[in-house]
Amino acid sequence: MNIRKALGGVAATAGAAALLLTGTTATAHAAGGPGGGVWRLQNAQTGRCLDANGTGGVYTSSCSTTAASQRWEYHVVNGKIQLKNTSSARCLKPSTPFSLILETRPCGIDANDLWDEVFVSGKLRLISPGGNALDSDAKGKAYLNQYGPDNPYQQWYLTTSIPG
User: In the CATH hierarchy, which fold is given to the domain comprising 26-159?
Assistant: First the structure.
């Protein structure tokens, strides 16, 4: 009986490890996100890139290899993510902790500046301090919405080069 329990525990551990290795479970920053760098966030559903202007507006537009407004510095702060736009030097954040309004503002290290990240099958989901996810639509709007792990409009690719 003890041998069966031991083998069962080994099998469960091996199964969990296999799930992690195949990417079928969500992995947080420590296990799957980049440690930093400059990235573009390309929406998995629309193919558009997260963009920002110098006055706080956030939206998506056709991806460009030359648009500094589509590049985001990816900083890890206390296990959370801070995204700073390279063109405006402003950080991506909700207007208030539980707001669905997305904007850029001067960077700080308050809770509104820091995001949780979830990677599933190579796609990033960014979760605000209020529990809402970075979302977008095909019309170019970017906003926050209730997190839905299967919502393709809340899934983003981190890329350093955008074709065409």
Answer: Trefoil (Acidic Fibroblast Growth Factor, subunit A) (2.80.10)
